[in-house]
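Lab notebook, bench 4. Still working through the backlog of constructs that have no structural model yet. Next entry is a single chain of 120 residues. Request: give me the structure tokens for it.
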Amino acid sequence: MLRVARDAGHDDTGRRPAAQRHRKIRACEVAVDQKHFRARRAGQELRQLQRERDPQLTPRERECLNWTARGKSTWEISHILSCSEAAVNFHVKNIRAKFGVNSRRAAAVIAAQLGLIDPG
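Model written out:
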């Protein structure tokens, strides 16, 4: 009788035994989990860096910036917020300095792009 030599790692159908297939599948699942974890962690680190990079606005500065983005003048904002025009100008000056721009309009555009305000 003639016998055909078979690869010891395969069954009669030419496939690997179930235990080997399951080990390989599990190894792939672990690799995917690790990649998912790394991607998620990278996303969290990116959001943290963006928060650190974004200018930190006080609540009053944010209010002034929201009204500025809606096209309100210093006088109008001062009446809306029940404060003086000097106070509004003070906050707008701080906003411009934090964004590194020369105009309130530029600060409003950047803030909207960063998602810090809703220009509505």
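Notes after review: The mean pLDDT is 82. The two ends are 86 Å apart (CA to CA). Flag for follow-up if needed.
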